[in-house]
């Protein structure tokens, strides 16, 4: 993912809302979100190059999402795929805190990442580019390709948009969340971060939804978990040649113990 917006326990009726965009080269082979044949408890897409995923949830209510940390100066030559971290968590029975505690011992092997990992009661954030993991209290959070809540334009704008959706809607539906994720407005050059990729790429990468030849927002996903354990998930996969065209698939299930 390149943008994850999260509302953790935003209302008495909602435990979790995740709205996220995955930005990637269109040539990288990918399988769209679905329940995995070899582990039908897991609902996630699959990176067919690295073998992992970027966002997933299980029928027991475990969920995780990951973004890359953008800094070309600290890239490793042959690291393991960061997407396998999500797969390992979803397949694990460890609590989010225990899993991250184990991950910390080997996190240096990976290129920079942000990890959100949670279950039906807790939510944690961890980055191997920061000192310590954090248990997140109820609130609204945003992560792009820096640390959590770094005020990049897309993060700041996305958090405000998510807060506004929550404020004006008693019943959260998918439509306004996908509308938020489809925002292609670019910030001014004076607002762009400097992550070492050059001004042209900073401009391309700055909008919430990236529409650029060869690289862009390949999918948008929304997860809504309510207090009764009902989960709704929807993913849109976009056409490289025309990002107005997309395929959509939805899922619904009840969390089981």
Short recap of the structure:
The chain is α+β, with helices and mostly antiparallel strands and 257 residues long. Helices cover 19% and strands 40% of the residues.
Report on the structure:
This protein is of the alpha+beta class. The protein has a single domain (3-254), classed as Penicillin V Acylase, Chain A (4-Layer Sandwich), CATH 3.60.60.10. It is built from 5 helices and 14 strands. The chain has helices at 83-91, 96-103, 153-168, 174-181, 199-205, and strands at residues 3-11, 14-25, 30-36, 39-47, 55-58, 63-68, 113-118, 123-127, 134-135, 139-143, 211-212, 215-226, 230-239, 242-254. A hairpin with a 4-residue loop joins strand 7 (113-118) and strand 8. Helix 3 runs antiparallel to helix 4 (174-181). It is globular and about 50 Å long.
Blueprint of the fold:
Blueprint: E1 3-11, E2 14-25, E3 30-36, E4 39-47, E5 55-58, E6 63-68, H1 83-91, H2 96-103, E7 113-118, E8 123-127, E9 134-135, E10 139-143, H3 153-168, H4 174-181, H5 199-205, E11 211-212, E12 215-226, E13 230-239, E14 242-254
Antiparallel strand pairs: 1-2, 1-10, 2-12, 3-4, 4-5, 5-6, 6-7, 7-8, 8-9, 11-12, 12-13, 13-14
Helix pairs in contact: 3-4
Q: Estimate the mean pLDDT confidence.
A: 95
What gap, in angstroms, lies between the N and C termini? 28 Å
CATH domain class name: Alpha Beta
Radius of gyration: 17 Å
Q: CATH superfamily assignment?
A: Penicillin V Acylase, Chain A
The total of beta strands comes to: 14
- DSSP strand content: 35-45%
SSE string, helix = H, strand = E?
EEEEEEHHEEEEHHHEEEE
Number of domains: 1
Anisotropy-based shape: globular
């Amino acid at each position: 993912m390149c943008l994850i917006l999260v509302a953790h326990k935003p209302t008495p009726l909602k435990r979790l809302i995740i709205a996220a965009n995955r930005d990637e080269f269109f040539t990288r082979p990918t399988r769209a979100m679905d329940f995995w044949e070899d582990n039908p408890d897991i609902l996630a897409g699959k990176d067919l190059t690295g073998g992992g995923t970027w966002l997933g949830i299980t029928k027991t209510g475990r969920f995780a999402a990951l973004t890359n940390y953008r800094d070309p100066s600290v890239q490793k030559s042959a690291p393991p795929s960061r997407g396998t971290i999500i797969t390992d968590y979803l397949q694990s029975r460890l609590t989010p805190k225990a899993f991250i505690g184990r991950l910390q011992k080997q996190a240096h092997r990976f290129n920079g990442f942000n990890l959100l990992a949670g279950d039906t009661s807790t939510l944690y954030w961890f980055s191997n580019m920061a000192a310590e993991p954090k248990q997140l209290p109820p609130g609204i959070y945003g992560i792009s390709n820096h640390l959590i809540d770094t005020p990049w334009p897309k993060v700041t704008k996305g958090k405000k948009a998510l807060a506004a959706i929550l404020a004006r809607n008693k019943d959260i539906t998918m439509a306004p969340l996908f509308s938020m994720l489809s925002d292609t407005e670019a910030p001014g050059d004076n607002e762009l971060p400097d992550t070492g990729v050059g001004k042209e790429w900073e401009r391309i990468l700055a909008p919430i939804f990236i529409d650029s030849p060869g690289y862009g927002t390949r999918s948008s996903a929304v997860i809504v978990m309510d207090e009764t354990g009902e989960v709704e998930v929807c993913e849109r996969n976009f056409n490289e040649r025309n990002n107005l065209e997309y395929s959509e698939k939805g899922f619904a299930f009840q969390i089981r113990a």
